[in-house]
Amino acid sequence: MKKDVVAGIGEIGKPILKLLSKQNITVGFDLNPDLMDQRKFKRYKNLQTSFLHITIPVTGKFINNVLKLDKKFQPECIVIHSTIKPGTTKKLQEKLSIPVIYSATRGIHKRMIYDLKRYTKFFVISENAPRGKWASSRFVKLMKRCGIKTKKMSKPETLELAKIICDTSYLGWLVNYAQLSNRIAIQYGIDYDEMWSFSDEIHKLLGNRPKMYPGLIGGHCVIPNLDLIENDILKFIKKINSNYEKVINKPKNRKKFQKLISNITSVGIL
Q1: Would you say the C-alpha torsion 98, 130, 146, 48 has a positive or negative sign?
Q2: Architecture of the domain made up of 2-154
């Protein structure tokens, strides 16, 4: 008998722990002991760890933190669910003698269990990973038992970039354009929603004119994930968002758009 471990019981780790616990013995670990089920953790302390699921926040010490967790639990395989800097999976695999899987997480925090089952869970493993076929097969079967679809990508860097470029940063650009168009609407004294109604039919027919609400980009994903990739163009997302905040906080604009701002002060996605 073996156990799985979820390291990091936060907005991603908690729902993953809940799903996995329904399928096999799974315990949660966190630096904050109040987030852990201490009795369950101690009960299965001596069981060998099969999969170690990494859901900790990404910092400059992320690789070292994962290595410490590997030493603590000595798993057969590591699965990273956190959004990481391109090249991280490769670096970890070079330092470890067990397979390392990267599986980007998609969804909205407040409905993460629902979204984990709704979206396909992309994953990837390095070609030179030891026991790679075994790790991939077991991960797919585990996710299937949890009601989660999976799809394997070819290279770790592809998925690492996809999460940042095609998900969070893409959302950032869309919201940026809504912010810019709202600034112009403010400048000319016109109604934002009425102006955007012009594109409703186009988007309905072609699907390429999405209307986004011009709120501030907040949350733990879009803006923080920009720091995971070195690209000066993408950094404009943060700059545009900061400048927009100054505009909507001006007294004359705040009163006019109070209802709009109060409803959408934050836009966030994983």
Answers
A1: negative
A2: 3-Layer(aba) Sandwich (3.40)
CA distance 87 to 89: 6
Is the pTM higher than 0.85? The answer reads yes
Closest Cα partner for 69 from 91, 44, 51, 90?
A: 51
Tokens 């797919």 -> residue = 140
Give 127-145 pLDDT, tens digit per residue: 999 999 999 999 999 999 9
Going by C-beta distance under 8 Å and a sequence separation of 6 or more, which residues neighbour residue 195? 181, 185
Listing DSSP states for 154-190 in one string gives S-HHHHHHHHIIIIIHHHHHHHHHHHHHHHHHHHHT-
Question: At which residue do the structure tokens 């993460």 appear?
Answer: 112
Secondary structure (3-state) at 222 = helix
Distances (CA, A) of 188 to 182, 184, 191: 10, 6, 9
Q: What is the pLDDT of residues 66-77, one digit of tens each?
A: 999 999 999 999
Q: Which CATH number fits domain 160-263: 1.10.3470, 1.10.1740, 1.10.1040, 3.40.1350?
A: 1.10.1040
Distances (CA, A) of 38 to 28, 35, 49, 120: 9, 9, 17, 32
Q: β-pairing, 121-125 with 100-102?
A: antiparallel
CATH 3.40.50.720 range(s) for the chain read 2-154
Calculate the alpha carbon distances from 15 to 18, 39, 204, 211 in Å.
5, 19, 34, 30
Residues of the chain with CATH 1.10.1040: 160-263
Q: Residues in the chain with pLDDT < 70?
A: 252-270
The residue whose two tokens read 């100054």 is: 246
Q: What are the CA-CA distances from residue 225 to residues 59, 84, 164 (Å)? A: 11, 8, 7
